[in-house]
């Protein structure tokens, strides 16, 4: 009985609303590629969450901004991409999101008995290994609960919320470290953040059309 009460208290103590800002550094062991990656200097990543709603914003230097808004309850998502190639909007259904989750879940996740403190939260270590054998390190906290549907940076196999990533893909390494954490969202701001109406100036595409462009 005591264990049940303790588990319930632990669950209710989890943070389910807030925002996190990350600094992003992208590097490569390939000198030619490193020069191209200079365009990504100053990149940032932000995540906003409130109950069933999650919004991520990836600012890729001067190249592109990608915003993804997902509603877990309604099982749908809107992705907005803006940059040198114009403005594109893509709506994703529950079926589309399921396919995306299957791709993310193909990685093998190993939980490691190591901890460190990030932004005042006790974080544990996880190692994600892709099909090519490349490892990525994730430091996560179990004190924060965020719905991960449709958010490719949030792996369902990691039992917590990531406060720090080190992602390796080919010859490129991306490191994202949280720099600011807030436990609350302004009500007015939250309404705007999770608005899934497509803004003016965006061309709507299907996920298949986007995939056909190699993205």
Description:
With 215 residues, this protein is α+β, with helices and mostly antiparallel strands. It has one domain: outer membrane lipoprotein receptor (LolB), chain A (Clam), CATH 2.50.20. Helices cover 19% and strands 47% of the residues. The protein has helices spanning 2-12, 31-36, 94-104, 187-193, 207-212, and strands at residues 17-28, 44-50, 53-60, 64-71, 76-83, 86-92, 108-118, 121-129, 135-141, 161-169, 172-182, 203-205. Strands 7-8-9-10-11-1-2-3-4-5-6-12 form a twelve-stranded mixed β-sheet. A hairpin with a 4-residue loop joins strand 4 and strand 5 (76-83). The longest helix has 11 residues, at 2-12. 23% of the residues are buried.
Largest sheet: 12 strands, mixed
Counting structural domains, the number is: 1
Classified by CATH, the class is Mainly Beta
What's the order of the H and E elements?
HEHEEEEEHEEEEEHEH
* Percentage of residues assigned to helices: 10-25%
User: Structural class from helices and strands?
Assistant: alpha+beta
> What would CATH call the architecture?
Clam
Spatial extent as radius of gyration: 18 Å
Distance between the termini: 51 Å
> What's the overall average pLDDT, rounded?
86
Task: Determine the CATH topology.
Answer: outer membrane lipoprotein receptor (LolB), chain A
Question: Which band does the percent of strand residues land in?
Answer: over 45%
Name the shape in a single word: globular
Counting H and I runs of at least 4 residues, what is the number of helices? 5
**What strand order characterises the main sheet?**
7-8-9-10-11-1-2-3-4-5-6-12
Number of strands: 12
